[in-house]
Every structure is written in C-alpha cells, then in structure tokens.
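Reviewers of the previous submission asked for a worked example of the structure-prediction workflow described in the proposal, so we include one complete record here. The input consisted solely of the amino acid sequence. No template or homolog information was supplied to the procedure at any stage.
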Amino acid sequence: MRKPYKPLLQQWAWQQSAACRGMDATHFHSPRGEHRKARREREARARQVCASCPVLASCAEFALDYREPHGVWGELSERERGELARRSPR
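From that input alone, the workflow returned the following structure tokens.
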C-alpha cells in the first residue's frame, strides 16, 4: 500500500541536496533496448554518484515507499528494490 502523498514541497525537499541534482536522468534510467552489460555499467556509474550523496537514505526510502518502478534510486536498482519490497512489504 502506498503512503499518502505529502505536499509536493515536503515530498521532494530532500532532492535539493542530492548529488544527482541537475544531472540528466539517463544516467539513472534505462533507455529502451539497453543490453545487460550496458545496464550494469550505467548502474555502476549511477551508484558512484549515489555513494557520495548526502541524501542517499532519503532517496532510497522514497523509492521504496512509493515503489518507484524505474531507475537507480539511493544506490538501489529496480531489481534490488523489488527484492526488498517482496521481503518486507511496507
């Protein structure tokens, strides 16, 4: 079950401090037809950005709470978030 949305400013305020702020979303999201090797490499580059992010935990929590279906959020891939959600539904 999804959490009720907070007012937008509160919901996204953590992004003001994100290491990825202003970066092109293609660094974190798969283009159509992306092959496995390219996906692993893109995700590794995205994780490097996430590793130094001061809001890493907030980002991961947001993606898990709202079951974000695409991209790398808080160092977690789509697959990893799916596995976590199946193990401990929120």
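The chain is about 45% helix and 0% strand. We consider this example representative of the routine output the project will generate in years two and three.
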